[in-house]
Amino acid sequence: MEGADYCVIAADTRLSVGYSIYTRDYSKICKLADKCVMASSGFQGDLKALQKNLAAKHLIYQHQHNKQMSCPAMAQLLSNTLYYKRFFPYYTFNILGGLDSDEKGCVFTYDAVGSYERVGYSAHGTGAGLIIPVLDNQLKSPSPLLLPAKDAVTPLSEMEAVDLVKDVFASATERDIYTGDKVEILVINASGIRQELMELRKD
Amino acid sequence: MGYMCWSSEIAYSGGMARFAADVPTRGGFSFDLCQRNEMLLKKGNQLPTFRKTGTTIVGLVFEDGVILGADTRATEGPIVADKNCEKIHYMAPNIYCCGAGTAADTEAVTDMVSSQLQLHRYATGRESRVVTALTLLKSHLFSYQGHVSAALVLGGVDITGPHLHTVYPHGSTDTLPFATMGSGSLAAMAIFESKFREGLTRDEGIKLVSEAICSGIFNDLGSGSNVDVCVITRGQTEYLRNHQLPNPRTYVSSRGYNFLKGHTGKTGEPYIPPNPRR
Prior knowledge:
The complex is a heterodimer of chains A (203) and B (278).
Chain A: E1 6-12, E2 15-17, E3 20-23, E4 29-33, E5 36-42, H1 44-65, H2 71-84, E6 92-99, E7 105-110, E8 116-119, H3 128-139, H4 158-175, E9 182-189, E10 192-199
Antiparallel strand pairs in A: 1-9, 2-3, 4-5, 5-6, 6-7, 7-8, 9-10
Helix pairs in contact in A: 1-2, 3-4
Chain B: H1 2-13, H2 34-42, E1 57-61, E2 65-70, E3 74-76, E4 79-82, E5 88-92, E6 95-101, H3 103-124, H4 130-143, E7 150-158, E8 161-167, E9 173-175, E10 178-181, H5 185-195, H6 202-219, E11 227-233, E12 236-244
């Protein structure tokens, strides 16, 4: 989710197939640039390939422009990369988070073929159906049904946002069998990227 | 169609005195509506899914009797429907049964056989035997040809000694010194195969059963939450509900949640209370 001057991005670390767990310690988050981080759910093989692809393109950009890519630029690049394989897609559901050129938090959410939108918060994966209603309720106030339209995203402080993310993951773990083990939480703000690992239920 | 003609013949041949109820019940399911269901599926009407328990259940025989164990998670596909359900069902004071498979089927079949055993106890004036429960269960499941999806671990101690059986949905049974069923059965059996031996003491038995269930809980996604254990010995049964709780919730928000007015949108239509009945 995005805040006034920070962005929080989190993913659980369980890799599972069918009813079995492959590993409890798998990172689904990748740092693409200084202030830009991507997390994905879906087929992890395609995710690895996509991360390599973007890292290579970012390196070329750095050589050509002598600077890091900004988050909105990376967002467009990711969209183009995904649509390039429109007829044999990357089976990944991505969320890109970071700080834009004004040092404000930004979150971009994608589908598998590159359709993207800048949003205040987003979730993907098997637990998304359990998490998004809670985020809708806590972050999106007032309701979008009311007119005239008011500022949709409530600015929470960084501590409150991280607290909400932890609670929401703990709740999703209770009810979704594919979510659990650990959650990796990354907070991106002006002073850099801070990483935190929180334990979740292992059953 | 042949069935329908037969019953109407019987109804007419004896005049008013004979009713369709005199036709002996054939038992099992009637498949008359299958064609209708197929037609509805083609039109896009999905049948509701059953709740499967996605389970780890185990049983073992120790020196004084039988110990049964089960996890407590009930799943509906990928979602946990019940975090603390009871999978060890009562059959008789000296016989208990763990159930895996469709939750409704295990509940119904164990309740039904439990009632039948009680009636049998009144009729015979004796304590129920495990083989009685076993025969009742297997003949019921066989007559439903596997459509009743109940996989059971039946254990108890009667006058002939301790017994442990597994019952499969199609009606076959096994008699074993240690047994596991459910989606977590492989994880639990791995523990049993390496650590089981004949003549375990009560504490060793409980520890082994808990370890096997924990293995299912942590390694199988269909099983989870807590460990239930049931120890049955000659003359005494101990049902240790939630014997272990190895999965507490890891984080509770200290901030709490506020639900302010305006969080839920209103359409603006006026509220009209329903008419009171006269």
